[in-house]
Write a structure and sequence with these properties.
This protein has 350 residues and is an alpha/beta fold. 36% of the residues lie in helices and 14% in strands. Helix 4 links the parallel strand 3 (103-106) and strand 4.
Amino acid sequence: MSYLDNIRKVTPYVPGEQPKVEGELIKLNTNEFPYPPSPKVVEAIESLEVETLRLYPNTTAAPLAKAIADRYGFDEDEVFVGVGSDDVLANCFLTFFSSDKPVLFPDITYSFYDVWTDIYRIPYETMPLDDDFKIKKEDYYRRNGGIVIANPNAPTGIAAPLDVIEDIVSHNPDSVVVIDEAYVDFGGESALPLVKKYKNLVVVQTFSKSRAFAGMRIGFAIANKELISCMNNVKFAINSYTMNSAAIAYGVAAVNDNEYFIETVGKVVATRERVKKTLEELGFVSLNSATNFLFVTHKDKPAKDIFEYLKTKNIYVRYFNKPRINNYLRITIGTDDQMDKMISVLKEYL
């Protein structure tokens, strides 16, 4: 018997590579937003009173929760705020998935889900996507201890129609269904309107993608107040002060500048569609993306070879050496200039 026998051992989530290279770098592998946060965030940074940092922050991030509630038409007690949507989702797993029945999620999806089930010792089963990488809703009409679905999905970028999501929620009244909408602002249909209709639905979103806050770490969940209260109880049992005062203030500024949000998201979507068309002209096949990235494969060239070649030019995209998707690349949408440089390098290679 060794002290090591009592240590929890897990296989951790592996994020996109954070390269350390010399010279110009084009980083298209972690789905970061290509434009800066709202100018109103800069104003909030400049007006922050440093003296307030000696005080503990608001435990529920109430000013930010209210701003989010007002933006989406909910009450403040129907909003949970966390340190990025990963923190919010981890709290969902810990709060809602505590039975001996398996939690269900797709076989190709956000790879943090099986990490959380492992570390929290939650039984789970993965439901295979069909040959077109789409959800088969009938797979979720079965005994389960909860359901989590990324919509739009990652890394495929495909969005399930809202009627499919509602069908899954309505068939599982005794389970909490979590819909992870990290990319919904780029072309998906949000399940937020269903929250008023279904007490078992939790919708999670993030500021990391469409609000350019990956470095600030803000995520939120919207659900009925009973579920949000349960999430807060679990959070307070671990750490009451998870979000710092600066993040709360900057988040309020970001969510209140809807004009800038709409403008910059529109630019990303326009670039995505232009690049998709160009890549298809170069022999790539691209799935129909509702996100800020493209999931592509080439008809002749192996994805891993393209991935390695781009790295030699300091262009980083994401390659997943996993079953069913090991000949695909996930390419984050950057600025027009970054995407044009990537396309130029691809033309050289091809």
